[in-house]
Amino acid sequence: MSLDPVVVVGAGAAGLLAAYFAAGGARPVILLERTAEGGRKILISGGGRCNLLPSRFDAAQYTTDSSPHILRNVLRSWPDHAQRRFFERELGIELQLEPETGKLFPASNRAAQVRDTLLHTVRERGVACRFGERVRALAPPAGEAAPWQVRLEDGAVLAAHAVVLATGGLSVPQTGSDGDGLRFAARLGHTVRPTYPALTPLTLRPPRFATLAGVSLEVVVRAPGAGEARGGFLFTHRGYSGPAVLDIAHTAVRARLAGGAQPLLVQWGAIEAPEWERLLSAGAATVAGALKRRLPDRLAEVLLQEAGIAADQRVATLPRDVRRRLLDVLLRFPLPHTGDEGYRKAEVTGGGVALEEVDARSLASRVRPRLFLCGELLDAFGPIGGYNFAWAWATGRLAGLAARES
Ligand SMILES: Cc1cc2nc3c(=O)[nH]c(=O)nc-3n(C[C@H](O)[C@H](O)[C@H](O)COP(=O)(O)OP(=O)(O)OC[C@H]3O[C@@H](n4cnc5c(N)ncnc54)[C@H](O)[C@@H]3O)c2cc1C
């Protein structure tokens, strides 16, 4: 008599790793994926280059409303160097470090290499990959030895010994993740912490800075009381994007969802006060000339308008209070924002299944037997830089290994 399989639902980053590690045991492994080929988010990641990992990561860089202790233990189960070794040695994907950002990319610079290698390898390990199969419902075992019932879109029901839920969150729904797994988890009795778009561009209505669209520079963005982010900033037609904005965006999104507003203060060019004071204190330069030495021309002009200072005024003639006003604009510019691009453009989902309800060593549900949860579905996300894949790989591996032994 054949044994009931381990069924992995979702062939994204987490599900592919879960299938990889669930394979090779006594039970067959079936990977169910609703899209035609899976791994769509891997394909669009890192601008098509796939920032596969950060060179270093630790739990302090992640956001969760759940237990930081469980988050830490899960990440420690497969630390940065071990993850890197897996991709390089086991999967044969050569990785290259981008020294200025600490990000690791495949040396081929092709996200498709990562997705295709994962798909190929899970098949090679005997996993039955079934694409175009959307899971509609999960019925838990009726008794201790009874199987899970996995109901598919066409009404067919699959008996499963164990289920690994790797259905992602709500970000970029056209990649296949529109919240099915969160609904399944809630229906099965799990606590799902309120979800919100994270790593998403911010918007401004009316678009006061639309003329700056395309201008980019380094910044520090501070969200008083909620953190800060450092890195690239990009003006868009509808608002702002770039790593620094994406990394801090969840503070604004959450404040708005709670009916409030999170102030964001920008330090343009990430230039410190003494440097500006030096540039603005003496000499024959105009203020516009001084600003344009460190900032993009178009932005310098707009910031002078914001400060109410004529571009051709000499820095040496600036009254003290006007210089102070200009320094405030350069170092603590209150960035107006009225909304965000939501899940349509969010790189990840904040919130999700409460970490307290999974075992940190196996990601086994504490609510239902032989159910394992992994990836973006769980209440944790990291900043730009490969941290979200690191989470998906680590949780997928743990869930797969445990499902195999279950
Ligand atoms: C534009 C973009 C760029 C990104 N770039 C990076 C990057 O460079 N580095 C980084 O670390 N992170 C990046 N991320 C984040 C990263 O892609 C995600 O954190 C990660 O892919 C989440 O993996 P997952 O497997 O948990 O979920 P997903 O990748 O969303 O996979 C879930 C899978 O489950 C399937 N599914 C859902 N419901 C069902 C169902 N009912 N039945 C069957 N199948 C189902 C979906 O079709 C999907 O294939 C990026 C995200 C986006 C959107």
Spell out the key features of this protein.
406 residues; alpha+beta; FAD/NAD(P)-binding domain; Elongation Factor Tu (Ef-tu), domain 3; 13 helices; binds flavin-adenine dinucleotide
Question: Overview of this structure, please?
Answer:
The chain has 406 residues and is of the alpha+beta class. It folds into 2 domains: 6-197 and 346-405, 3-Layer(bba) Sandwich (FAD/NAD(P)-binding domain); 202-340, Elongation Factor Tu (Ef-tu), domain 3, CATH 2.40.30.10. The chain is built from 13 helices and 20 strands. The strands form 5 sheets. The chain has a 7-stranded antiparallel beta sheet with strand order 17-16-13-14-15-12-18. A 5-stranded parallel beta sheet has the order 6-2-1-10-20, covered by helices on one side. It has a 3-stranded antiparallel beta sheet with strand order 3-5-4. Strand 14 (227-235) and strand 15 form a beta hairpin. Helix 10 (297-307) crosses helix 11 (320-331). 47% of the residues are buried. The model has no long low-confidence stretch (mean pLDDT 96). Flavin-adenine dinucleotide is lined by residues 9-15, 32-35, 38, 40-41, 44-46, 50-51, 134-135, 166-168, 171-172, 175-177, 180-181, 347-348, 375-376, 386-389, 392.
